[in-house]
Amino acid sequence: MKTLKDVISLKFKTSESEGVIFHGEGQQGDYITLELKKAKLVLNLNLGSNQLGSIYGHTSVMTGSLLDDHHWHSIIIERHGRNINLTLDRHMQHFRTNGEFDYLDLDYEITFGGMPFSGKPSSNSRKNFKGCMESINYNGNNITDLAKRKKLEPSNVGNLSFSCVEPHTVPVFFNATSYLEVPGRPSQDLFSVSFLFRTWNPNGLLVFGNFADDLGNVEIDINEGKVSVHINVTQVKKNRIDISS
Questions:
Q1: Are 9 and 76 in contact (CB under 8 A)?
Q2: CA trace torsion 133, 139, 140, 145 (10° rounding)
Q3: I need a labelling partner for 19 at 20 to 30 A (CA). Which of 91, 158, 178, 241 fits?
Q4: Nearest by Cα to 21 from 131, 165, 148, 164
Q5: Which domains, from first to last, does the chain contain?
Q6: 158-210: per-residue pLDDT in tens?
Q7: Alpha-carbon distance 83 to 96, whole Å?
Q8: Quick check: 86 and 34 in contact, CB under 8 A?
Q9: Torsion sign, CA atoms 27, 48, 34, 78
């Protein structure tokens, strides 16, 4: 396929911060890869380079953040020659590709949800996408519908299910005044707590608990963007331990 214009759109949701959403490459050195890196969306595109290095076509654009929140996100990529509009959740970013070429020359297949192992260093270091996609549309072709009806030939559908499994974790949202109080475990000499959290606020109390028999307390908080643990013990000389990270 040698195209001057491309329109690629899809929706995805995932709890993974890394993964290839789609990839295509050609023998002329052209490629297009859309992937998640550190929960951000990265589009890598090359419409052609030459061996002399005077034409260097690699272009990389990053957008979004915290996209591993298991909510639906929509992507639209519109290309006309070297002009690209990249839209993530209705936020559009316009840019021009490097190099001097206008056509995207892909003479192998395009893969969604990962990339085939080509022996190149770039292929084995990238993770496949793990999550859900819907409404995949590539230049007017409804890929999800064609795949479900097995109308994509030749195609290699690896371990797909046409349903979206919800995660077992249940998030809890706290506003500035809410809290969750749970019963402690008396007569145990072990205190253990683990949790995942996400916030825009640089300060806030995460966990607080009193030890039984007035032996002290433990406090975990965010202070200026750092997580701090404070352990107060009333019956020893060095009665306070502070850990910050």
A1: yes
A2: -30
A3: 91
A4: 131
A5: 2-149 (2.60.120.200), 185-237 (no CATH)
A6: 778 888 877 777 788 898 889 999 888 777 778 888 888 888 899 999 999 98
A7: 5
A8: no
A9: negative
Q: Per 3-state DSSP, what percentage of the chain is helix, strand, and coil (rounded to 5)?
A: 5, 40, 55
CA distance 224 to 212: 30
Rg of the chain on CA atoms, in Å: 25
Q: Tens digit of pLDDT for each residue in 170-184?
A: 788 898 889 999 888
Phi-psi region of 151 (alpha: psi -120 to 50; beta: other; left: phi over 0): alpha
Q: What is the residue type of 55?
A: I
Residue 44 is inside which H or E element, if any? strand 40-46
Residues with Cβ < 8 Å from 31, sequence gap 6 or more? 23, 24, 25, 44, 45, 46, 106
**Which ranges constitute the DSSP H helices of the chain?**
121-124, 143-148
**Pair 242, 229: CB distance under 8 Å:** yes
Tokens of 5: 């214009």
